[in-house]
Design goal:
This protein has 299 residues and is mainly α. The protein has a single domain, classed as Rhodopsin 7-helix transmembrane proteins (Rhopdopsin 7-helix transmembrane proteins, Up-down Bundle). It contains eleven helices and two strands. The chain has a two-stranded parallel sheet. Helix 9 runs antiparallel to helix 10. The longest helix is centred in the N-terminal third of the chain and has 34 residues. The protein is globular and about 65 Å long.
Length: 299
């Protein structure tokens, strides 16, 4: 296949590489810092931070799968990508999105236990359960996304030039000559299952949290309970709002130019990876204190 980059903005590819390469560096530093802190600080070896560390790993995998090839395209006009590499990139990019969503469900359950069952937190969320939750999220991503490249391998492609910066599933499907209804139906099924079911479970967790918080007599206790969920809520907004906006504009925004769709598709993949460590760094006192300690030690 040949990745065309951003149609209509080919002459601006070099300039576009500046914000994308800057985001790439910030993502590597931010996610790497959180991982380093969780790995080296015993006080952060708790279920919440273990799930957060796994989220950082998924964000790094998604970014490292997406951005290097994009920058090669922008900097060196390296557009060609082998079919196997294309399908592999597709698997890891879309798989990471599914795992990220599943981790947000697991983290919502973590917040529910922390607020509604604080005395039994360590009993319910044991290290063994956290490991099982982590493995379940990875299995969900792999099992749901693996059929996508497998279904594509049965097709013959009439066009090899993909108008995109990466091997997006639907962008590749549109290159096929044969009937692609199974591919389209399965892609829609994955979106509805992941977004619909995961948001339903997250919403249920926060309904139960809100019911528990409203029963508290102390305003300080109410504020403290809500504050424990603030970072997770911000991450949910950063993850789902750009993705839903991109999906809606792709389906109903016929008057929106193609380059806007492609830029949105890249941003909804990169924004969570960019903002997640910043949100947790600002909203979580333990991480903020550890970062401050290392910065002061460095000076």
């Amino acid at each position: 296949f040949t990745l065309m980059g951003i149609p209509g903005l080919e002459s601006q590819h070099l300039w576009l590489s500046v914000p994308f390469s800057s985001m790439f560096l910030v993502i590597l530093i931010g996610n790497g810092t959180i991982l380093f802190l969780v790995a080296t600080q015993p006080t952060l070896h708790t279920p919440m931070y273990q799930l957060l560390a796994l989220l950082m790993v998924v964000d790094l995998v998604s970014t490292l799968t997406l951005v290097p090839k994009m920058l090669c395209l922008f900097w060196f006009n390296d557009r060609d990508i082998a079919a196997g590499a294309c399908f592999t990139q597709m698997f890891f990019i879309h798989g990471a999105s599914v795992v990220r969503s599943a981790l947000l469900v697991a983290m919502a359950f973590d917040r529910y236990v922390a607020v509604c069952e604080p005395l039994r937190y360590n009993t319910i969320l044991s290290h063994a359960l956290v490991r099982r939750l982590g493995l379940a999220t990875l299995a969900k991503g792999a099992l749901l996304i693996l059929p996508m490249p497998l279904l594509l391998q049965r097709l013959t492609f009439c066009h090899m030039a993909i108008p995109h910066t990466y091997c997006d599933h639907m962008a590749v499907v549109k290159m096929a000559c044969h009937c692609t209804r199974p591919n389209r139906i399965y892609g829609l099924f994955v979106i509805l299952l992941v977004v619909g079911l995961d948001l339903l479970l997250i919403g249920l967790s926060y309904i139960l949290i809100l019911q528990s918080v409203l029963r508290l007599n102390s305003q300080d206790a109410t504020w403290k309970a809500l504050n424990t969920c603030s970072a997770h809520l911000f991450v949910i907004l950063v993850t789902y709002v750009p993705a839903l906006f991109s999906s809606i504009t792709h389906r109903i925004g016929r008057n929106i130019p193609p380059h806007a769709h492609i830029l949105l598709a890249n941003l909804y993949l990169l924004l969570p990876s960019l903002l997640n460590p910043i949100i947790y760094g600002i909203k979580t006192k333990e991480i903020r204190d550890k970062v401050t300690k290392y910065m002061c030690r460095g000076t």
